[in-house]
Predict the structure.
Amino acid sequence: MFDQVWPAARCGEGWAFERLFEAYSPSVSAFCRRQGVVDPDGMVNEVFLGVFRGLGGFAGGEADFRAWLFTIAHRRVVDERRALSRRVQESLTAEAVDTAYDGDVETEVLTAMGTDRVRALLDRLAPDQRDVLLLRVLGDLTIEAVAQALGRSVGATKALQRRGLLALRKIIDREGVPL
Amino acid sequence: MSAPGDGPVEMPRNPFPDDRDVESLLAGRAADPEWSGVASLLQEIGSGAAAAPVRIGSELAQVLALGLDPQLGSAPESARPAPAPLSRRPRMMLEALLAKLAALGVVAKVGVAAAATGAVVVSAGPAGALPPALQDPFATVAETVTPFDVHDSDEDEDVDDLDEDVDVEESEAPDVEESEAPDVEESEEPDVEESEEPDVEESEEPDVDESEAPEVEESEEPDVEESEESVGSESALDSDTDD
């Protein structure tokens, strides 16, 4: 898909933007939600607007595009994290509101509960450990790409990944599987 | 040969999987059952990518529908509303002003009309740009109310009369003559006479007259002529005196 859409996207074609958005926005949205962003949809909109406006200066393949996309998303998350650290954070409430979509009420409740439990688990990780794991799982980035996105060395990124996984295992062993 | 104690030694169990197993773990598959809980959690995290649709804002919706100018990174020209050309803006301002005027009451309209008329008369009156039928009453009123001598239609005739009747009064209203017949001594003499003769009426009116509109026109352009012609006129004067 990417190879067919990419040339048209570089020419500014709206239909190509739409294809890219359909393909990548769910994972970017999940990344923002798992990070506890207050307005995940708003951030996804900002990320894709930035990507589409910067396409002219980008060169690379699908993996590079994905890495670039999630690097932008990660920077937005970090910016918000810094801004929220100065204020009282009520992101859990915002998350519950944001996930309330049309559909089956029971499913929504279970989804919200599951989301909250996963979120609560992830919140117990150090932010940089969470960044690494979410970029690897949701962004499907290699350890090298994650290291580049975070501005760290590959070794340091691997260490963060390792510590994050160990921390999750310790929590799960102690408290049971969350889902 | 094996040394004593070289039997199958139970290696200390590595609590952390190797790189290949980590990749499987991140994909939601655990090679080691002890990591199954982590694997299912990571699988649940990954499945969140297919969960909720994203609400698209108006700006992004416009970009998705219309695309972007690849050079500028903005919406194409056809997609953006064209800014109003400059020539239309004064017209728009005038229309807005007229709309506001139309919304006013009768008394307010009369007041606005009177103010506009007054502004026109006050601005055009001192310059003598009003029609004679308006200029003379304006001059009368303005001279009564203010200390200024306002140009009226009679002054043109007076100037013509003065041109013809060159006499003692030449020093009071000689500006036209000065420009036409530049005499250095004459241009200096009236000032001395005016300052020496303490006649209030004569000293006030001509002074204002000279400082106001008629004097400005005559003092700027003809002065240059005077200075240019004065060389020739002085020599002519000299020649006259010599004669």
